[in-house]
Structure prediction request, 269 residues.
Amino acid sequence: MEGIPKVSVVITTYNRPEYLRRVVEGYLNQSHPPDEILIAEDGSNRETELTVGELQTKSNVKILHIRQEHNGFRAAMIRNKAIASSTGSYIILSDDDSIPCRTLVKDHLRYAERGYFIQGHRVLLGEKVSNNFTFWDISIKKLFLSFIKGQVKNFSNAIRLPIPLIMISQSLEGIRSCNMSFFKKDFVSINGFNEDFIGWGKEDSELVVRFYKYGLKRKDIRFHASSYHLYHFHYERSNLEKNILLLERSINEKDYYCKNGIDKYLKPK
Prediction:
């Protein structure tokens, strides 16, 4: 890849200000910090706004707060709004429950390549260890001790090898937008996330279905670019069946461009 693109990290959040603080601190302490961080807030309480304001005053990295009123789980919509407001040519997606390893931004950039999007992986933290876990607790020794106590799953993803394991595919297995990156141009070309998806589930898989139809391949990276998932209760999933039907419809259609996407938020050139 020629040159180093400007990087925008987009972090979705809803009513988890203390988790959000820890995630943002992880991105502010990267070996290669992002050029900007966009907090994509799906209508949280006042405490989230205060937390973002505090982080903005202390950060050397520009932090933008993109907010919408809460009307159910609308991650697709708020991500579109945030990415439309971004100035980077390369986008890294994260969530307010996913603390990045120190080299996550650097790793995504190193393996960014035209014609691909990147899927990273995560270490799952248990309820007890998640209570106080921060970016500074990311160490093999601490994680292994928690693993022995049954408080860490997917421990192997915490191991950093000299060279990552990279697999190229067009698979939907293991798609998670909490650790995913792509060129903004590719995202806009397929009109971003499909905002017909309301409620938890499958909006990220449907995005990837259209990435594949557009011509991209998946670059799956293990043992680099790991994130650490803080424990929380599952989101309400009453719309999951409808979202699965939307995903199946997208799989069966030929078009990669969704009708209800990011275009409505983009400024005309």
In short: The longest strand covers residues 7-13. The CA atoms of residues 119 and 159 lie 17 Å apart.
